[in-house]
TrEMBL record:
Organism classification: Bacteria, Pseudomonadati, Pseudomonadota, Alphaproteobacteria, Hyphomicrobiales
Pfam families: Cytochrom_D1 (PF02239)
InterPro entries: Host-pathogen_enzymatic-act, N2O_reductase_N, WD40/YVTN_repeat-like_dom_sf, YVTN_b-propeller_repeat
Domain of life the protein comes from: Bacteria
Protein name per UniProt: YncE family protein
Gene3D superfamilies: YVTN repeat-like/Quinoprotein amine dehydrogenase
Organism: Methylobacterium durans
Length: 319
């Protein structure tokens, strides 16, 4: 990777579909720190604190059973971490794994190989590659929708591909802005939001019809994208301006919130957002109602990817 590519945050949205009947869920927030080689729970729940993984984790996604999966592009591996902070297994991966997403049943991982320009479907237990297909250059963000389709942001190709998750057949490709990186699906699955780093804008895709609806200005170097739980607000981190922009569903800008230095990944849990600030080694906590940062929490060096993981009521003590 180039130095800029190596610094690309791997904010990846995972499908966090929980079985029905589990009741109301709390949320655990995890942050991957690439420089420190660690993943940290930062919401104050049981097991909060860093778990040392070694060799720069980049991509981060969560399975329905709350297992975390992290990619290690420089050491060609994927690490699985349990909700109790134990490292469960380390899966070798031939190539440079970067972006990652998890199937709705938690049985399969979808892994983008940054160097080989492929996406592989990987058995989440054994690490066996079940299928692979070529995509555009530098596959970065990956996200899986409820229908099992895999959306891939192709940073070096200025495009987004749509794959059939069961066969990995490429169903469509759409041109977007320059250097698309982060992806976020709306809660209803109707829209896909794409942060375009080099053109400083946000592309909105109709995720059902697979057509581009609009491209609107964002801040300087938009790297992370997330939505509120009702889909009414879209959050975009702006690396170069150290802020988070908030847009409404009509794509009108409703506010810009200062955060730490070089914000990358962002995740939303209830009325709060959590932003990984790469240069200041902390996580900004944003009150979405007040639209302001309410605190910063220190984490190990180089935080970049963030994921919000639902926790079933009664699923952990000491909350």
């Amino acid at each position: 990777m180039t130095s800029e590519s190596a610094r690309a945050a791997a904010f990846v949205a995972a499908c966090l579909c929980l079985p029905t009947g589990l009741g109301r869920a709390e949320t655990a927030i995890y942050v991957a720190s690439q420089e420190a080689g660690a993943v940290t729970r930062v919401d104050g729940g049981p097991g909060s604190g860093p778990v040392t993984l070694g060799a720069g984790p980049a991509g981060l996604a969560a399975a329905p059973d709350r297992t975390l999966y992290l990619t290690h592009p420089e050491s060609a591996a994927i690490t699985a971490v349990g909700p109790d902070g134990r490292v469960l297994r380390r899966l070798p991966f031939r190539g440079q794994p970067f972006g990652i997403a998890v199937s709705a049943d938690g049985m399969h991982l979808f892994v983008g190989d940054w160097k080989a320009n492929t996406v592989s479907r990987v058995d989440a237990q054994s690490g066996a590659v079940e299928a692979a297909t070529g995509v555009g250059r530098e596959p970065a963000g990956l996200v899986v929708d409820a229908a099992g389709r895999v959306f891939v942001a192709e940073r070096g190709g200025d495009s987004v591909s749509v794959l059939d998750g069961s066969t990995l057949e490429r169903r469509a490709g759409l041109p977007v802005g320059r250097a698309p990186f982060a992806l976020a699906l709306s809660p209803d699955g109707d829209r896909l939001y794409v942060g375009n780093v080099r053109s400083n804008d946000l592309t909105v895709i109709d995720a059902r019809a697979i057509t581009v609806l609009a491209t609107v200005p964002a801040g300087r170097s938009p790297y992370g994208v997330a939505t509120s739980r009702d889909g009414g607000e879209i959050l975009v981190t702006n690396q170069e301006s150290g802020s988070v922009s908030i847009l409404d569903r009509s794509l009108a800008l409703r506010g810009e919130i200062p955060v730490g230095r070089y914000p990358e990944g962002v995740a939303v849990a209830g009325h709060r957002a959590y932003v990984a600030n790469w240069f200041s080694n902390d996580v900004s906590v944003i009150d979405l109602g007040a639209r302001r940062e309410i605190e910063r929490r220190k984490v190990p060096e180089g935080p970049r990817a963030v994921v919000a993981v639902p926790v079933p009521r009664g699923g952990e003590a000491g909350r």
